[in-house]
Amino acid sequence: MRWLVRRSLFAALAGLCLLAAGGVLAAAPAGSQPIRPGATPAASASATPAAPALNTVRFGRVEYVDAADFGARFGLKFAWLEEEKRFQLKSVTTKWEIRVDSRECLVDGQRIFLGDPVRLSKGRPYLSRIDAERLLAPILQPGWGETRVPALHTIVLDPGHGGKDNGKVNERLNVQEKDLALDTALRLKQRLEREGYRVALTRDDDRAVELTERATVARQEKADLFLSIHFNSVENDVERVSGVEVYTMTPQHQLSADRKPDDQVDVFNDGNRYDHWNVVLGDLMHRQLLRELKASDRGFKRGRLAVLRLAPCPAVLIESGYLSQDAEARKLATPAYRQKIAEAIADGVQAYAAILDGLRKKPTADLPR
Questions:
Q1: What's the pLDDT tens digit per position in 59-86?
Q2: Which residues, 6 or more positions from 307, have their beta carbon under 8 angstroms from its beta carbon?
Q3: What is the DSSP string of 257-310?
Q4: What is the model's pLDDT at position 361?
């Protein structure tokens, strides 16, 4: 019964999250449709006319949509903060601050990285179509354009590294990523099982697991969710860089957050089948970790990491802190703080579950599109 009570509490929280992310589902303009290349929105079944087609431009190979028009579809008002340099999309419940020629934006004060930089054309800012469809829309309105809500019964936890692969290491404090990741995953497993989920691990001891094998475990377990747990490190500015960051799979045709070209850019990978739900999960997880850990915000990013690229379900990779900064490494080395990380991740899962529960109660025809 306890987990049902908690689920109800998180359902209420999810309603607040939806408001914070731009309004309830029904608040979308009538007749709004997913933005698909070469298509205009179909007419609504009601008498309300369809939303107008968005203005588009091209910069090189990338198609862009008018930022103000896109915001209007979700009830967000456009305003320049610095003429032709920085603007906001704002409603009574959410505020996005975005800079022209940048990929970084602030959503209610939290860092989110776009796949393509914002561009300016004839005095108007434009967002890449892929960012509009597969990043901004899922955050603003989970379920927008989707006709099926994912199940959430089985969760696979993936403690990073293991065996001879120590991961990141703070030699001064003798702290290894592989040990912290496993301990955090075991703590998280206990919490999620109390909530009523079936939980499996890609490793439950100090052994090496190939990246492809981790995805295989998720496939064999018929996972509905895949959570990969890691800890980070940098070589420069070690005392300045700390905090948490969350990664989901990079959409097809976009570069990852590190902007390094790779041979998978134009490939549609298994993980891309869940682009929408990856973002819903990643955004909620990012918010929850920052809220509960009070850690520095390293951002919500996308990466074509192997475990995300091969994942057979919605997936997220969490960098829970930086071992390179001694002050943060000392915290990470304590069981109490790792328990706090596990609780924050579990609460992120519950927030995601509550969103799914709310959408599942709506008839398919009523899902936002």
A1: 999 999 999 999 999 999 999 999 999 9
A2: 158, 211, 214, 215, 226, 228, 315, 317
A3: TT----TTTT---GGGGGHHHHHHHHHHHHHHHHHHH---EEEEEE---HHHHS
A4: 87
Is residue 186 domain-shared with residue 76, that is, in the same domain?
Answer: no
Q: Is residue 365 part of a domain?
A: no
Q: What's the pLDDT at 13?
A: 47
* Residue at token pair 């431009």: 57
Token digits for 142?
């989970």
Using DSSP's 3-state secondary structure scheme, residue 206 falls into coil
pLDDT classification of 198: cutoffs 50, 70, 90: very high
Please tell me whether residue 278 adopts helix, strand or coil conformation: helix
Does some domain include residue 6?
Answer: no
Shared domain check, 197 and 239? yes
Number of domains in the chain: 2
How far apart are alpha carbons 32 and 50 in whole angstroms?
6
Cα 109 from Cα 5, distance rounded (Å): 31
Q: Yes or no: say if 88 and 69 are a contact pair by the CB < 8 Å rule.
A: no
